Amino acid sequence: MLEIRKIISVYDTLDHSTEKVALASVVSVEASSYRRIGARMLVRSNGMWVGGISGGCLEGDALRQAQNAIFTNTPSLVVYDTLEDDNNQIGVGLGCNGKVEVLLTPIESSDPHNEIELLRSLLYAEQPTILTKVITSNGKIALQNILIHQEQPTPQILDIPSEELEKAIQVVKQKKSHRIFEIKSHKKSHRVLLEFIRPETRLIIIGDNYDVNAMAQVGHTLGWEIWIIGRLKKLSKELVSKVHRVISFEEHTRVQTHDYTAVVLMSHDYKWDQIVLQHFIKIAPPYLGLLGPKKRFHKMNAEIADLDIATLEYIHSPTGLDIGAESPEEIAHAIAAEILAVFRQKNGQPLKYKEGPIHARTRE
Percentage of the chain surpassing pLDDT 90? Predict the structure, then answer.
């Protein structure tokens, strides 16, 4: 979501009467690639861009291709293929031995349903949304984009059978990841990308001591929505400028959560941690971490009647991955890494021990 925000921020500053733009989007990845499906890059007619579709090796060529799409007002699909490790094949050093397809779409600013405006509608969503993109029909670029919200019935898109599209949607919802499907109708074969777009991660930090600054900064860098439960007078103006909301300890029951909310208790105040913990246990957020040693957690657990909180899988105490973190900044990174691992359903082990590809397959 952070990249989408940056793209929209730049888009909104432009004078669209004098400057045109195109959106470069990764729509398919085979084998290895630095960026995955959903990576985006906004290209301006003056040659400047924001976002990215690789680690830097594709942007130069994609810039030229996108400018051509702008000036001809014609979308195109570009394939970067180094599966055979031949850099001369595409004129750039991809370096990942992979195949990446990039869709280049001129953006018509007067169209209220252009892809930038569709993405804008997702900025404050609290549930996942599926961006359905018909890439090609019978081999020709189709460019049909429709947002499908959590409880929305399956829409009719072109002549794609609704029951086949619904099956694809259910797969994406279950896997919580992007998928490309080849769906046939009685007349055509459609190549459809279903992009699973998570809402912005909400990080609720309980505490107002100096280490909260490091935790909030890491979350802010990741593009998370930061809430702090603590005393406003103890927080710096710089920190408050990066925070979505500050709520006092006494008003902690006003805090709202959703399925992508992480709560981290780091007040260093045993009484408040215990009070706030009991409130969030009733809500059961997907991640609830407690800073501090295990013996502190066991003491707290023993004092909560009729419930063994140590058996609750969403509670992580001590919070964070075991990376030997010592400073507030290192501890914040260890906590953020564990939150990502939980939300992405990964175990946090070193990639050197992972069998097979880093990322899951994206084709059905």
Answer: 30
